[in-house]
Design brief:
Layout (H helix, E strand, L loop, with lengths): L1 H14 L8 E6 L51 E4 L3 E5 L18 H6 L23 E8 L3 E8 L8 E8 L8 E3 L7 E5 L1 E6 L2 E5 L6 E5 L2 E3 L4 E7 L8 E10 L11 E2 L3 E2 L9 E2 L17 H10 L15 H4 L6 H9 L7 E4 H5 L11 E8 L22 E8 L9 E7 L8 H5 L1 H9 L4 E5 L11 H16 L2 E11 L1 H12 L6 E5 L34 E6 L9 H11 L4 E6 L6 H5 L3 H5 L13 E7 L13 E2 L2 E6 L7 E8 L5 E12 L7 E13 L5 E7 L1 E7 L9 E6 L3 E6 L6 E4 L2 E4 L6 E5 L2 E6 L1
Parallel strand pairs: 21-22, 21-23, 23-24, 24-25, 25-26, 33-35, 34-36
Antiparallel strand pairs: 1-31, 2-3, 3-4, 4-5, 5-13, 6-9, 6-14, 7-8, 9-10, 10-11, 12-13, 14-17, 14-18, 15-16, 19-20, 20-22, 26-32, 27-30, 28-29, 29-34, 30-33, 31-32, 35-40, 36-39, 37-38, 37-40
């Protein structure tokens, strides 16, 4: 598909596809203007924004501590890192990285990942037999080594443990840290090698034993403490049996257990075929450091790619970069297991080890959790109970079911917790995983994260096809909660962007939660406002048939990118979308490229023009003069904690009627807020960037007019609203009047009144509660209030 895409792009440029010329139009609007950057909130706020969905605030469940583990559980949340914790060395591996050895072919074609996330295949070629392995049965999540006065402790936490009889693991010990002594062969038919092995500890649910790999003699046998709830194996080895001292080099690998539980089983390849008898039998090798699994791992070159790269140097502009995209087919490290896969292809796992300093464990030294910069994979514990392992259904969602879920974070170089930073969401495409942006779009990542000095986050959403709806949206908010607790992020300076499915969500999420986003950049995501009658994300959605929620985005500047001929994002929607945005007096820059199909610009990593069009330091205006907000039943899922909670100075939004994906609307004007009239001005131009196809650019901008008259008066019109609360402090109405018009019974709450304050509601006297809240039921028609 990529070769065809490059060829069509070249043909398009050569044939000279017509590009519309520039144009300009002005639409007069009486709208308010947000205050200057930084004035939206009186002072920078860190953490979660006030309008975040309830799911962001849900408490993270605690993982159970396995028995018998006498040390603290203080594992790093960053994969590929470790720390010391009160007598234990605790290491965190990646989740869903258990794909074994690569094939001799350079192309990564792992069928397990091709079914789950087809456009982000793993390099390893192993899959799992049907049954209790659940597509993830030998996945080491964490490993730990502890020391007491009497024994050493050897712990393995599994990401999936449907049946304890599925996995087998092996520790190897180079007790003098001298590669020239001991054996290189791993026992238990692991078909692995590494130098200097003096002892090996093999662990399965049926038991564990300590072996001399040089002689093959079993030194001692032990019980394996299996904790199914914690999904852990622990072996306790008395010090008089295994004397520990000095510095040891330790390695650990896991695979499937043979029926006896005493040896590694032959791995399974695509089509349920067995791997060769001589192949390495480990699915997962831990103690791989972050630096050993970069986003692009060891470019595997072919003559054809080299020739294309050489020939491309004579092409003009953006075409020069097209053949370089071919390297993604062989170099992408989506699951942080490419180095592991290459090592297992030879069976030599020498690169992956950890040195254990027994003196430091005896002294019960504790080191801080690693603080890393750049991209890193992290994990959290979801509060959803979806099962274990990987779903076997292609393009299903949720796909990755275990309680531990991954996400990726970029921390700019030089980050200090003393200075909070903006937050940028990079939402992955359909059929691609959470590592998409450092793998496919390193330039976009650098521009958005490092150059804009922003913490960037990419959630997995339980799989590649969740459309950031339902459980996938729940994941998004739970990851936001994690990031807000782990890093100091500015709650009012959040940018959201993404490509394809991620671009679609960059429309839907700001449309539903406008007051939590300072700006949005949907990239080739077509259009879906989240309330259409068509299935969410349907490629054939016609915007004219969808509810118009453009007014929701009035305070969220947009940078939109799409293609004339994108088969997944119909260009027929583009003129209608521009018309809607202009009519709502929204600020937008719309890029229409001449790319011939959906993935061209993405694989070229060519978004420099779009990034340059973003506001420099966008800030949410928490106190806008006008609020026009429409939402639908489809946006709300109380079980998952989804749906609008607070939109600027309005909160407690609930519908009166919810059947049939009903729509509800609030239109409010707060005369106490400052504002100025503006004119919506539309202009057009054509650009030819160096890193992307030519583009037509349409811009909707604001031209300032006279200041709007201020008064302590609130006007609201409600349609299908069952409940709404007005925060009078945020609305800056310590006293004033209100005129509320509703089409049916509505519960109205006024908050931040003085305790017991008198409020006149349609001529009747009411008093606020001791907490300064008054709740009244309004009937159909207009009601006037004074306080």
């Amino acid at each position: 598909m990529l070769t065809l895409a490059v060829a069509v792009v070249v043909g398009l440029a050569v044939c000279g596809v017509a590009i519309p010329s520039s144009s300009a139009a002005s639409v007069a609007q009486a709208v308010s203007l947000p205050r200057a950057s930084g004035a939206g909130l009186e002072r920078p706020r860190t953490g979660l924004p006030p309008g975040a969905a309830r799911a962001a605030h849900d408490r993270e469940p605690r993982l159970p501590t396995p028995k018998p583990w006498p040390f603290p559980d203080r594992f790093s949340r960053t994969s590929g890192t470790g720390r010391l914790a009160g007598g234990a060395l605790e290491w965190t591996d990646w989740v869903y990285d258990d794909y074994g050895a690569s094939e001799t072919s350079a192309l990564p074609l792992n069928t397990e990942t091709l079914a789950a996330d087809p456009l982000s295949p793993a390099k390893g070629s192993f899959v799992y037999p049907a049954g209790a392995a659940a597509g993830d049965g030998a996945d080491i999540f964490r490993a730990a080594i502890g020391l007491t006065r009497k024994a050493s402790y050897w712990r393995i936490d599994w990401n999936t443990l449907v049946s304890p009889r599925v996995p087998i693991a092996e520790w190897t010990f180079d007790t003098d840290d001298d590669a020239s002594t001991g054996s290189a062969r791993w026992p238990a038919a692991a078909n692995l090698t590494s130098p200097g092995i003096d002892r090996a500890l093999v662990v399965s649910a049926t038991g564990a034993w300590l072996e001399n790999p040089t002689t093959g003699a079993v030194i001692a046998r032990f019980a394996t403490h299996v904790d199914p709830k914690a999904r852990s194996f622990i072996v306790v080895v008395p010090r008089h049996v295994l004397a520990v001292s000095g510095r040891w080099r330790v390695r650990l690998a896991a695979g499937l257990a043979a029926p006896s539980g005493r040896t590694f089983a032959v791995p399974t390849l695509a089509g349920a075929l067995p791997a060769p008898a001589t192949a390495a039998r480990a699915y997962n090798v831990t103690f791989r450091a972050r630096r050993q699994e970069p986003a692009q791992y060891v470019a595997t070159s072919t003559a054809g790619i080299d020739q294309a790269l050489a020939a491309a140097q004579s092409l003009p502009g953006w075409l020069r970069q097209a053949p370089a995209a071919l390297r993604h087919l062989v170099d992408d490290n989506f699951w942080s297991e490419a180095h592991q896969a290459d090592a297992l292809a030879t069976g030599d796992v020498t690169p992956f080890s950890r040195v254990v300093d027994w003196h430091r464990l005896a002294e019960r030294v504790t080191t801080p959790a690693p603080r890393v910069t750049g991209w890193s994979d992290r994990w959290y514990v979801t509060d959803l109970h979806l099962g274990q392992g990987v779903s076997g259904a292609a393009t299903a969602n949720p796909t990755f079911l275990s309680r531990v879920q991954p996400y990726e974070v970029y921390v700019p170089k030089g980050y200090s917790a003393a200075t909070p930073l903006p937050l940028t969401w990079l939402l992955h495409s359909a059929d691609v995983n959470y590592n998409q942006y450092p793998v496919i779009n390193p330039r976009l990542s650098r521009q958005l994260c490092q150059e804009r000095d922003s913490i960037c986050v990419s959630p997995e959403g339980f799989g590649g096809d969740g459309l950031y709806a339902g459980v996938a949206e729940h994941d998004f908010w739970q990851v936001w909660g994690q990031v807000a607790r782990e890093y100091r992020v500015l709650a009012d300076r959040t940018l959201i962007t993404g490509y394809s499915m991620g671009g679609l969500a960059s429309f839907v999420l700001p449309s539903t939660y406008p007051s939590v986003f300072a700006a949005s950049m949907p990239l080739d995501g077509g259009f879906d406002d989240g309330c259409s009658s068509a299935p969410a994300g349907a490629a054939n959605l016609v915007i004219a048939a969808a509810p118009d929620r453009s007014a929701n985005l009035h305070w969220v500047p947009l940078v939109i990118s799409d293609s004339y001929t994108d088969e997944l994002s119909p260009s027929v929607n583009n003129p209608e979308l521009i018309q809607r945005l202009s009519a709502a007096a929204d600020r937008f820059t719309f890029f229409s490229t001449t790319a011939p199909e959906h993935v061209t610009t993405d694989l070229l990593d060519g978004f420099s023009s779009q990034v340059a069009a973003l506001p420099h330091r966008p800030v949410v205006d928490a106190h806008p003069r006008t609020v026009s907000y429409t939402w639908c039943s489809q946006s709300v899922n109380r079980r998952l904690g989804l749906g609008p909670t607070r939109v600027y100075w309005l909160s407690g939004l609930r519908q009166r009627v919810t059947q049939g994906n009903a729509l509800s609307t609030v239109r409010a004007t707060d005369g106490a807020m400052a504002g100025r009239a503006v004119t919506e001005h539309e202009t057009g131009s054509v650009i030819a960037p160096a890193d992307a196809p030519p583009m037509q650019v349409t811009t909707g901008s604001w031209q300032l007019g006279a200041p709007l008259q201020r008064s302590r008066r609130l006007e609201m019109t409600l349609r299908n609203v069952g409940h709404v609360a007005v925060d009078l402090a945020a609305a800056r109405l310590p006293s004033g009047t209100a005129s509320i018009t509703t089409d049916g019974a509505t519960r109205l709450a006024l908050t931040h009144l003085r305790p017991g304050e008198l409020v006149r509601v349609g001529g009747r006297a009411r008093h606020a509660s001791r907490r300064g809240t008054l709740t009244v039921t309004l009937g159909r028609g207009r009601t006037r209030l004074r306080w």
